[in-house]
Amino acid sequence: MLIKTYASAVYGINATTVTIEVTVSQGIRFFLVGLPDNAVKESQRRIEAAVKSAGFAFPNKRIVVNMAPADIRKEGASYDLPLAIGVLAASEQLSAERLGDYLMIGELSLDGTIQRVKGVLPIAIRAREEGFKGVILPKSNAREAAVVSELDILGVEQLSEVINFLNQGNSIDPTVVDTRQEFLNQANRYEVDFADVRGQENVKRALEIAAAGGHNLIMIGPPGAGKTMLAKRLPTIIPPLTLQEALETTKIHSVAGKISKDMALMTIRPFRSPHHTISDIALVGGGTVPQPGEISLAHNGVLFLDELPEFKRTVLEVLRQPLEDRMINISRAKFAVSYPASFMLVASMNPCPCGFYNHPEKECSCTPGLVQKYLSRISGPLLDRIDIHIEVVPVPFDKLSEKRNGEPSASIRERVTRARAIQEERFTDTENVHCNAQMGSSMIRKHCYLSPAGQQLLKNAMERLGLSARAYDRILKVSRTIADLEGSPEIKNEHLAEAIQYRSLDREGWAG
Fold first, then answer.
1. Span 339-343, mean pLDDT?
2. What does the pLDDT read at residue 71?
């Protein structure tokens, strides 16, 4: 008797339906074909023990299982549940009447418990697209999948629950999540706030400009000046995720297994801060079993690289293409996947190995050549993709001891949101451009017009401060954002002057 059950395989952030065909006939041995990996091949022992724990007999016959399409590699233990149900139905211990209505995923323990799996959100989206009535999956994954509407999400904890549901019609209450209400209830619930920051008004201003225009930013300052604290608060002033962005972000984190059992939807912008010992594959994604890397987990959020010069050169260089394309394409001999990677890069660094170059009070013990060598660990092409350079100085005691709170994130976010709305309107007719940081050279010439006085100001600044040629476009982009924050259709001289300040690392002789 031929029985078909349905499962799913995840590649990149999309799922493909897998048809599991099972036949039971006279003979012995268990045959599993269709390009399974070792985890799938080992499923026979788990299934056998789980079926017996549920009070059923594992057929002592010849069992052939085909997982189609056969040219796609099947990986992981999430096929245990549909394989077990297929074997029971093919041996006529279970009714096959409703098997075609449901897609099933889940890893089985030896006692029949159904364990949590990765990637259920793209699987649920695919199931709805292909017209399945519902998805049977681990209960701990149910809220994550229930974000998808028009689909019965049946969360189960034991194999016996699935058998009784298919055999006897026992009902399983579907998990229901009101996606819009969940989104509204949890939006902008951050644990940190700019109101906690004392002093650092110039840095907060630079972060506001970066958030308003989607600009990448680097902070240079001595240890303990507050660089990490400020970076962690940047997501709180970026405009809230849209529902579409929230779903896209949740999908990536679902594939990576980063969604907790109580979470249905990611409603705040991600903030990823990998350690400087990270490998290039961990940063961009990939591996034997393809997984999204840190740059994709930071999609629609912030990627913070603390102590930037301490990262390996090869790791930093892989950032260049995703920063331009906002997509990472991973190609290996046996697969090719794409992950979205639209993130704001925020980096911090000490100005020198000892950390006290340009410090207002402490003396730097590094030679000028050593300072330059330290800064040269960051390549020019990567630095070229960072629009704002801001120097961070230690906060004096009188500022630290102030009892008055700083401006809250909500107030700053309102100004940033208004500036982003201006940019959305400006780039309505331009595909894949949503903020000033994404403008190309032709768009800069169109939208960043300077008056003759502005042109002269920029020329004088570049000559007197020794700014590099790559600073030219960056200054124009940032000045356009500053004008947007003030609601000005024109770039005024004061906007241009402020933007010029944010190119510290481009000044000749900055490092001696």
1. 92
2. 86
- Cβ–Cβ < 8 Å for 393, 355: no
* 8 Å CB contact between 447 and 435: no
pLDDT at 43 exceeding the cut of 80 = yes
Q: Which helix (H) or strand (E) holds 15?
A: strand 14-25
Cis peptide bond prior to 69, omega within 30° of 0: yes
- Kindly list the structural domains of the chain, giving each domain's residue range(s) and its CATH number in brackets, ordered by start: 2-168 (3.30.230.10), 185-425 (3.40.50.300)
CA dist., res. 134 & res. 126, Å (int): 11
What tokens does 499 get? Answer: 């933007």
- Give alpha helix (H) positions in 91-215: 120-129, 142-145, 159-168, 179-186, 201-213
The predicted-structure confidence for 276-331, as pLDDT tens digits, reads as follows 999 999 999 887 777 899 999 999 999 999 999 999 988 998 998 898 888 898 88
Structure tokens at 258: 């980063």
Helices (H), 7-105: 38-41, 43-53, 80-90
Q: What is the full DSSP assignment across 411-442? A: HHHHHHHHHHHHHHHHTTTSTT--SGGG--HH
| Residue of 392, 415, 406 whose CA lies nearest to 238 | 415
453-486 pLDDT, tens digit each? 999 999 998 888 887 777 888 899 999 999 999 9
Q: What angle do CA 113, 164, 8 make, to 5 degrees?
A: 60
The structure tokens listed for 206 are 């630079």
Tokens of 438: 């994404």
